[in-house]
Amino acid sequence: MAGQPIDPEILPRLDPEYVQFHNKYIAHLPAPHTLPWNPNMRNGETVPGAAVILKVGSVKDYDLSKTKVRVFTPEGTPPEGGWPVYCWYHGGGWTLGSISAENAFCSRICTGAKCVVATVDYRLAPEHPYPAAVEDSLETLQWVYEKGSSLLHINPARIALGGSSAGGNIAAILSMQAAQLTPPIPLVLAQLVVPVTDNTAQTTGDPYPSWKECANTVWLSCGRMTWFRDFYVPNASDRTKWDCSPIFAPNELLAKSPPTWVAVMELDILRDEGLAYAEKLRSVGVPVAHKMYMGAPHQILAMDGTVLAIGRELVADATRNLAEAFGTFNL
After folding, report:
1. Where would you tag: which of 83, 85, 135, 321 has the fewest CB atoms within 10 A of its CB?
2. Is residue 1's pLDDT more than 60?
């Protein structure tokens, strides 16, 4: 059975720490998209190399109508008005991952930005295709806003969103949906880490050169990305809808997005659509900051343990950016 060797054109550009880890732990494993679909694929570790989960004040799960949410609360007493809160949407191509994915990251955000973190167990494709993930995620945001003061001791005026990959897609969409609600849910920040912004992107590299340049990159190759896409959005006509591909949102709606931080990886097929989305937000007046992590592949957010210094850098950057938005930096 074929493994996942590093493409010789990608190899010299990759972070050396990543190369060493990949060759030891990943290269011999078959890529999921080359195997027959089996939901048991979700039972393994989504991305190897995560840090340990830090101790926080409490961790509690809450059931919603079709999903559940896991809430990390900092140690200590809430500040006057309540904790700021960060709603996080995990990656996994809308197909893999779970409420336990990226919990190490959630614990670091909770302690480092001194905020409650709510991570969502949205329903997954192919059993629950588009728009189930967005519907569950929006319900969670509304639950946090409406119930959070009494249940979680949060301040509903200090809500931020974030997500990685498919979760970054969801966070971008919710950033706009929040503004359409009655009443609107005010957001102080959106953090989009390696987001999927255009579900019509093609391997030709037009209009996103990274889809061609990085076609055979590690982890998220074009083959794996289209595998995810076909499970999540089997109806091609849905792929241009803005609640599937946020880059197609009308300008007047994009302009209602909160200040946004976008993180992209140099050796990721999603790099250029993330940058294009940042530029589109900027063009309609949304305050945007972005950073590209050189030599990094798609999945380094979840590789912030002893594995990758660049993964730890990304987590530290996200934590600081969020803490600055909440006013909790160096408190």
Report:
1. 135
2. no
